[in-house]
Amino acid sequence: MIALPEPRPRRGYWASLAGRVEAGTPAGRDRSVDALRALAILGVLLGHWLVTALIASDGGLRTVSPLAHMPWLTPASWVFQTLAVFFLVGGQVATRSHASARAGGVSYGQWVGGRLGRLFRPVAAVLVLWAAASAAMLLGGAAPATVAALLKLVLSPLWFLLVFAVLTAVTPLVSRLHPVWPLAVVAVVDLARFGLGAPQWLGWANVAAGWLVPYTLGAAWARGAFGRRRPAVLLATAGALATAGLVLWGGYPASMVGVPGAAVSNLNPPTLAAVAFGLAQCGLALLLRGPLARAMRRPGLWAGTALVNLSAMTLFLWHQTAMMAVTALGLLAGRELPGLHTVPDGPGWISARLLWLPVFALALLVCWSAFHTYEQGGSGRSARPGHRPGRRPAAVEEHAHA
Fold first, then answer.
1. CA 226, CA 233: separation in Å to the nearest integer?
2. Who contacts 253 (Cβ-Cβ below 8 Å, separation ≥6)?
3. Measured between alpha carbons, how far apart are the two ends of the chain, in Å?
């Protein structure tokens, strides 16, 4: 009697994709870096979707913050304000990348041109689309205040890219700078602004100095400064205590994001409280490296993390557009939809908003489908991990994204 071969179990698409990404990942890659970057980008997305609301007003739309109506939501800003982790990872990756480029004989011009090109290439698509959309809305009779509110949501996150680009460009100069020096600049500027009556515009010096603190911490990480747990524990503890002290006794607001109508914003420009909070975040992130590295051994989880990293810029640039598209389409229903167009003034709004998050994610997926090739230099092939046998998946290549 002839024995029939046992049927092979069918592998799903995701399992197959995860296997290819896993097979193409270099053995020595520090997956915790990619995990931290993915957590940071997801924190930004969820933070903006939860603490920014567009409500119908006088025939148009205006931006409001749930934090202004529900101050007890302030701890949410501690969870979702993850910019310090962006700059920590960015400093680590840029420092290692520059050192590798020098060792390989790559000139500084080639190195910085490549990194900034990957950073800014997707921005052009956003600017072109919104220039056309704004003109169409104005010609169609939309209120200028509505168009301005929408443009502010789209364009305001771009300040981050400018700061990050500058720090990337000066990586060879600042990679060995001790973080205490930019921290001291932030402290002196705040003292001058809030204690000595200096003009408030002086605070914009903290845009560079404030984010240089986690960036130089990332550079120190790349040089092996956090090989043991103790420095990270001290960093997290000191940052948390300093933040608490500045909020409780220094007069700084507790929210780590800007709240419309508040006298002081911790973020625009960064204050000493925001930088201290960033130190605590960086310390916690460094302590999570081990658990994250172990979690990333699971092929499915690693594949998702790698794909988020591959599309980090696309997700960052288009997540506000996705939210606004859903909000605008919701107006076609002819009435204000809870959690979408209503004033964020109570727990009911929060419950409704949480139900809208999957819809925002679906809209973002549509944006990703249309525009992710710009992040890959116009080549759709690199967006498909493992698209060619024997070739390393693009999702596990080193990025400039943060």
1. 10
2. 247, 259, 262, 264, 265, 266, 273
3. 62
Q: How far apart are CA 382 and CA 395, in angstroms?
A: 8
Q: 290-312: per-residue pLDDT in tens? A: 999 999 999 889 999 998 998 88
Residue whose entry in the numeric block shows the structure tokens 């130190």: 279
Report the distance separating Cα 285 and Cα 239, nearest Å: 13
395 vs 7: CA distance, rounded Å: 32
Sign, CA torsion 10/13/18/19: positive
Instruction: Examine residue 199 and say whether the peptide bond preceding it is cis (omega within 30 degrees of 0).
Output: no
- Residue 18: name the closest of 308, 306, 293, 372 by CA: 306
pLDDT digits over 311-362, tens only?
A: 888 999 999 999 999 988 887 777 788 888 888 988 999 999 999 999 999 9
Q: Which of 87, 259, 258 has its CA nearest to residue 161? A: 87
